[in-house]
Amino acid sequence: MSDPSEPDEPVTLQGVGVGRGMVVGPVAKAYPSPVIPAGGGGDPERLEAAFRQVAQGLQARADTATGALADVLAATAMMASDPSLLDEATKRVAAGETPAHAVDRAVGQFVEMFTAAGGVLAERVTDLRSVRDRVVSVLLDLPEPGVPPLQRPSVVVASDLSPADTAALDVSKVLAIVIGHGGPTGHTAIIAGQLGIPCVVRATGAMRLEDGEEVAVDAAAGTVVTHPGPELRARAQARAEAAAVLTTDTAPGATADGHAVTLLANIGTVADAERAAAGAVEGVGLFRTEVLFLERASAPTEDEQAEVYAEVLRSFGGRKVVVRTLDAGADKPMAFATQPDEENPALGVRGYRLVRRVPELLRTQLAALARAAKDTGIAPWVMAPMIATAQEAADFAALAREAGLGDECRVGVMVEVPAAALRAQDVLAHVDFVSIGTNDLAQYTMATDRLRGTLVDLLDPFQPAVLELVAATARAGRGVDRPVGVCGESAADPLMAVVLTGLGVTSLSMSLGAVPAVRHVLRRHTLAQCEEAARAALAASSADEARAAVRALVDPEVVETLAL
C-alpha cells in the first residue's frame, strides 16, 4: 500500500463510516472473482447443477442466519434459482458458448438491465455478480470467491461483499469490515450495523491494502489508516474501554435534568426481539413486519402472523412495542403485492398505499395484531408507513379499530413524506402518535435515492431542510400533547439525538448497539442545552455547518468519549 522506500509511513483512506467503533487488526482480503480463461471452460452437463448447488448453499446459510442477514441471503438464493437466468445461460451454451462464458454473459445482460432500471434493482447488482462468481467457480472447480476462513481476529477487506460473503464470516473473528464500494444503506452496512461490527464503505483504495498488514479502522471518522502507530492503538483501546463502560448504564433515557426520552430498539424478527428484550431498552420503536412477508409466493396467514406478533409482545412483557404494518414496495418488492410495471417504485404503490390494490393484506395483518393483543393481554402500538395525507391517517385509524384494536392499543402513522410533516397537526387529529422515518423523509425531501451511495451527502440527516420538517412535526405533537418518535437511522447518531430531543421528539428507536452512546450523551446535557443545540442546527445553512455547530455546544468530554 505504501511506498516501499518508506514501509512504515501511514496512509489514510477515507470512506463513509457505519457505527462508532474503532479497532486495530490485520487485513483479511476476500478471494477475487474467478477469471474465465480465454477458452472458457466447464461441462455443459453441469450447468443446471451448478446453479442448483449455489442456490442450495445460499439458502442453507439463510436458514441458519437471523434478521436482515437471513433476508438478503434468501433473496440472493432466489436469484440463483431464477429460471430466467438459467434459461439465458442455457440458450447461450446451445448457441456454442462455453458454460463459464455463457453464465458470465447471461449475468452481464441482467446487470445491464438492473443498472438501467435503477432503484432497488440497481441495488441487486452486487447479488447478481455474487451468483455469477459462485456458479462460474463451481464450473471451473475453483475456490468459492469471498473471504477465506479467518484464522485470527481480522479486518475484512473487499471491493464489495455480497450477503453470501457476509454470511460465510465467523463474526467472532471479524474486527471490522472495509469495502471499496457500497453505501451506508447497502447490504454490507445494514448487516454490519445489525452485528455491531465497525464498518467503512466507499473506502477509496481499499483493494490496495495488503493481506496481513495492520490497519486502524475508525467507523466514527470513516477512516482506515495503515501502519498504525502507538497513538492510534492507544486511542482504539481507550475507545473500546469507554464503550464497555457505557453499557453498564441501564437506566431509562433522560436528559441531565430528568426530561424523559424513551430509548427503544428497531427489530425485524422474533430472534431480534429476544435479544433486544434482554438489553437495556424500554421497548421497541420499530418492528419491521415485512420480514415475515419477504421471499414468499403468498402472504402469511392470519394465524401465522398472530403467532409471531404474540411472541414479540411476550418477549417484552408489557414494554412498549410499536409495530409497523407491511412496508412492501420500493426497496422491498413482493410478488403478491408489488406492481411489476412501476417505473418509479419509491414514488408508487408502497406501504399503506397497498390498500388501494390489495386491501386484504392490511386487513389480515391488523386482525392478526388484534388477536395477538387479545391472546397476550398486551396492547401493541400500531402504525402505518408511507402516509401522505390526514385522510389516509384517518382511514388507517378506522381500519385498525374495525379490526379489533381497541382503545387500549395506540394507533399511529409514520411521517416519511414531506406532505405529512407539513400537515402534521392535521394528521395528529386522527391518530394517537407519529413516528418519523428519517431515512425516507430525507430521500423524499432531497429527491435522492437512498440506495445510491454516491449521493450520501444529500441524505445527511443534518440537512437543514430535513431538520425543518422534523421540527414542524415535533411542534405539532407538542401542540396536541401526543408522542412524536424517530425510528430512522438518525436516532442512533449521538449528536443528532441531542438535536432531536431539543426539537421535542419524545422517543428514539435504533439498533440495540447504538443505545449506550445515545443514553450517555443525553444524560450529560440538560433539556435547555438540547434546545440550544436544536436552534443552532436549524440556523445553519448546510449539513456540515449544522453538525459543527452542534458539536461545538456538546460537552467536550462527551465528544472525546464518543469520538463525535
Written overview of the protein:
There is one protein chain. The protein is an alpha/beta fold. It folds into three domains: about 10-30 and about 145-230, Phosphohistidine domain (Glucose Oxidase, domain 1, 3-Layer(bba) Sandwich), CATH 3.50.30; about 45-140, no CATH class; about 255-510, Phosphoenolpyruvate-binding domains (TIM Barrel), CATH 3.20.20. The chain contains 22 helices and 16 strands. The strands form two sheets. An eight-stranded mixed sheet has the order 1-8-7-3-4-5-6-2. Strands 9-10-11-12-13-14-15-16 form an eight-stranded parallel β-barrel, surrounded by six helices. Helix 11 links the parallel strand 10 (about 285-290) and strand 11. Helix 4 (about 100-115) runs antiparallel to helix 6 (about 125-140). The protein is globular and about 70 Å long. The two termini are about 30 Å apart.
Properties at a glance:
Glucose Oxidase, domain 1, single chain, 564 residues, alpha/beta, 8-stranded mixed sheet, TIM Barrel, 8-stranded parallel β-barrel, globular, 16 strands, 3 domains
User: What is the CATH T-level topology of the largest domain?
Assistant: TIM Barrel
Q: CATH first level of the largest domain: which class? A: Alpha Beta
Instruction: Describe the oligomeric state of these chains in a short phrase.
Output: single chain
Enumerate the strands of the largest sheet in spatial order, edge to edge or round the barrel.
1-8-7-3-4-5-6-2
Number of helices in the DSSP assignment: 22
Coarse shape: globular
Class computed from helices, strands and strand pairing: alpha/beta
Indicate how many domains the architecture comprises. Answer: 3
Distance between the termini: 28 Å
